[in-house]
Amino acid sequence: MPAKNKPVQLELFGAEQQANTIEGTVPLAAKSGERDERSEKSSTDTRPEPPSDVSSPPQTTAEESEIEMQIDMLYEAAEQGSAEAEYELGCSFEDGLGVEQDITEAIRWYVKAAKQGHAASREALFNLFMFLLERDDPRDEVEAFYCLRKAAELGLVEAQIALGSRYADGHGLPQDDDEATHWYRMAAEQGSAEAQYELGCAYENGWGVEQDTTEALRWYAMAANQGHSSSLEERRSAELSRRALDRLKESGK
Q1: Does 24 or 240 have the greater pLDDT score?
Q2: Tens digit of pLDDT for each residue in 224-234?
Q3: Alpha helices for 96-192 (secondary structure H)
Q4: Which of 45, 64, 196, 210 is 20 to 30 A off residue 160, Cα-Cα?
Q5: pTM score of the predicted model
Q6: Secondary structure letter of residue 226 according to DSSP
Q7: CB 84 within 8 A of CB 120
Q8: What is the pLDDT of residues 116-145, one digit of tens each?
Q9: What is the assigned CATH class of domain 156-253?
Q10: Buried b vs exposed e over 34-43: b needs ≥16 C-beta within 10 Å?
Q11: Whether 209 contacts 220, CB under 8 Å
Q12: Nearest 5°: CA angle at 139, between 133 and 140?
């Protein structure tokens, strides 16, 4: 805040000193009493201080003005349906850049952009999920899992696998094999080797689906063909299990 301007007390001795010089014979001591009286009067004749609660208006820097202008332009573009502008607004609200930080508002803009297929917005939702969980505040859990579900619903493979895992383990969500298998399948059908492996396990053990060794082998094979090491072992195990099952069926006939 800029310093207040204080009233300037004017020195009124210049004219008097000039008069003493002109008179010449008048000793300065003779005028001392008059000078003291005049000086005392002058010192009390000051302008009143401005009220203490009066403050100067906040100064806006050129940089702040530029940011505000950019935010206005983003709003205008977002209203016209620009996914990129919606994403940038989400970033602004997440970071508090040019606007007051608001995670809920950030999520809203990310979702709007992600619904238009904006890939970075889906990733931003998933990153927010992880960030909110890392803060270890129970108040953040609702928004965290909302972000995770939205990212999964909008096709982000990492989010689908994470959601399936959370349902499978009952970690932060109610344990639910049906939901776990559903999300693993969504990711597996997009080519995720990890999800294909998990879906193979589900079919082999009957988790959320009817037990089916043949179907388990199919998913294990798909994952193994992408180099998923665990799937190679599970594939061998499943093949042995299928052969044993076939022998049991034959012996029962």
Answers
A1: 240
A2: 888 887 766 77
A3: 103-114, 119-134, 141-153, 157-169, 177-188
A4: 210
A5: 0.68
A6: T
A7: no
A8: 999 999 999 999 999 999 998 888 999 999
A9: mainly alpha
A10: eeeeeeeeee
A11: no
A12: 30
